[in-house]
Amino acid sequence: MGPYLGMSSRRTRTVAVLLAVSTLLLLAAVGGAVPGALSVGPIGETTEGDRANDPTTEGTVGYVEGYWYDDELAVDDRDGAVVEDDELEAVVYRSMARVEEIRGLTFEDDVPVDVISREEFEADNDDLFADVEGDERVQLNVNAEALFAVDRETDATEAQEALYGGTVGGYYEPATDQVVLVSDSAETPEVDEVILGHELLHALQDQQFDLSSYDRETVDQDNAKNGLIEGDAVWVETAYEQRCSEEWDCLEPADATSEPPDVNWVLYATIFQPYSDGPDYVDHLREQGDDWDAVDTAYDDPPASSSEVIRPGEDREPAEIDVEDRSNESWSQLEIDGEPAAETYGEAGLVSMFAGDAHDSDEPSVIGPDAFFESDLSGYDYDQPYTDGWAGDVLVSYVADDADTDDPAAAADRAGYVWETEWTSSEEAEQFLAGYEQHLELQDAEAVDDRQDTYVIDESYPGAYYIDHDGETVTIVNAPSVEELAAVDDGAAPEGEDTIEVDDAPESEGDDGAEADGDEDDSIPGFGAPAAVVAAAIAVAVATVARVRSNR
Question: Of 251, 358, 362, 524, which sits most exposed with the smallest number of CB within 10 A?
């Protein structure tokens, strides 16, 4: 479970940290299972009779710097998982050998492993987020509001930082080729060997496939690439954990208790998708070829969108979308490094927007818990009828000329956006429309009289919203007021009657989304979420964060 740092220089540092330090919530499973958990049989077995007489680190799978994957170490017989400085090297080498044994590849170089205190990590984490100011911070606030993830009174950067403070237990950093483990006690550090193995797998990936070589200019590109990279790592981690329970002696810290996390569920679901769907994607690849060959080959042609990870075997190259700037002289596109501030959230991001309240039994959601939570509670189901026809999306932020971008909180009141989405057919576009209109209603949006397809929200996400549907394209325009919609995008919110007509919301197995009539009877889908399901979902996050805090 581990993040790795290596984002495109064009991405903001906040988004880089958000997607790089994703160790936070990635074991999401009750009872220690891993998202997308799979049944792992014997893999890469190397018996003593098969072992080379003269093994080498670079040429022998399951052997690193004098240590075989099944060697016994003095630390194995110790209560707890405390590792002294002079013992860490042996633990690391054996863990590297174990990763090789599962993955069938060899390390080309040593991997430095450092253990730092929680205080050191939190200071570094604060420094990374502190550098995000001005236009970048404005864009993040606009994007988070567009997803209905962070309301006007909350700073998006702080909300993202809250996901990570005090919870990350380790990461791999390609810039230094180093694994860093975060310990609550640097004086007597405990090593979680399964997490060490996950991070070492990232180092192995980097040595073999160069993790820094991929384009990561959007959230969807991150999720797509992470579907392969993290799917591979979670698959190996699951196999590692199984071997630890059945045949290997492994270091495992004692469980620690912690307070329930304050989780922003939309942001959580947005970054969690590769860890939920990635292992199944890797399984699909393994079925296509000889063991790991197809997985290795995929690094030369990784997924192009989160859709390809959600439904393995489906090619879904994102459509090229050019959002034309049709603002008037009082508004303009926000620019970062001389380019329009644009983002693509992809299918996974749109699902997260519709399912964010699925964890709250007191709130209805477009995609409810029965439809969103996997039946075994091991992850989320991102294959949803509202969004499975996604072909592309681009969200461009706009600011009024009188906006003070040096004060992101104040600038949010004078910001807006144009979010153009493309769908594989007009019918798929209508399904998304049905979901989006329900979502607006759940935010207490009111239709504007004498304006076509225009709505106003007064609280939480205040402003005016205009929806345009043209065949396979759905465009959402947002501005502080109805009058300013056309200033952001010429022609938005024209006078007249509503023109959009959509059929009933799509249904799926276990569908329990909110109904459009807003009836608040407890039997209405979305309000009557099974308490056990919701409690289990929250327990998933609590158990995950507690385990992370204990040394992950």
Answer: 362
Q: Report helix, strand or coil for 68.
A: strand
d(CA 33, CA 19): 22
DSSP code for 110: -
Handedness of CA 91, 94, 100, 105 (dihedral sign): positive
- Among 284, 270, 295, which residue's Cα sits nearest to residue 348? 270
**Token pair of 390 as six digits:** 């996604």
Cα–Cα distance for residue pair 136/142, rounded to 1 Å: 10
Tokens (6 digits) for 266: 């939309």
Beta bridge partners of 205: none
Amino acid at 42: P
Query: Could you list the pLDDT tens digit for every one of the 552 residues in the chain?
Result: 444 533 222 222 223 233 333 333 333 322 233 333 333 333 445 555 567 788 999 999 999 999 999 999 999 988 888 888 899 999 999 999 999 999 999 999 999 998 887 778 777 766 655 566 789 999 999 999 999 999 998 988 888 877 765 567 788 988 899 998 877 766 777 888 998 999 999 999 999 999 989 988 999 999 999 999 999 999 999 999 999 999 999 998 876 555 555 778 899 899 899 999 999 999 999 998 778 999 999 999 999 999 999 999 999 999 999 999 999 999 999 999 999 999 999 999 999 999 988 887 778 899 999 899 987 777 899 999 999 999 999 999 999 999 988 888 888 899 999 999 999 999 999 999 999 999 999 999 999 999 999 999 999 999 999 999 999 999 999 999 999 999 999 999 999 988 887 665 565 544 555 543 333 333 223 333 444 444 555 554 444 433 333 332
Q: Report in angstroms the alpha-carbon separations of 11 from 54, 110, 113, 161, 346.
A: 47, 30, 27, 16, 16
Say if CB 341 and CB 135 are below 8 A apart: yes
Tell me the C-alpha distance between 122 and 101, whole Å. Answer: 34
Q: Is residue 116 part of a domain?
A: no
**Cβ-based burial of 261 (10 A; exposed 0-12, middle 13-18, buried ≥19):** buried
- Residues 519, 150: Cα–Cα separation, whole Å: 26
Secondary element (H or E) of residue 318: none
Q: Is residue 412 part of a domain?
A: yes
In a domain, 400, yes or no: yes
Alpha carbons 239 and 194: distance in angstroms, whole number: 10
Mention every residue, 6+ apart, whose C-beta is less than 8 A from residue 426.
Answer: 471, 472
Q: Count, in order, helices (H) and strands (E) of the chain.
A: 16, 15
Q: Tell me how many domains the chain contains.
A: 1
Task: Give a yes or no: residue 278 inside a domain.
Answer: no
- The β-bridge partners of 336 are 339
Cα separation, 7 vs 547, in Å, equals: 27
List beta partners, residue 68. Answer: 63
Q: How many CB atoms lie within 10 A of CB 151?
A: 16
CA atoms within 13 A on the CB side of 365: 27
* CB contact at 8 A, 295 and 321: no
As a whole number of angstroms, the distance between CA 365 and CA 438 comes to: 9
- Domain residues for the domain of 442 are 331-527
Q: What is the pTM of this model?
A: 0.85
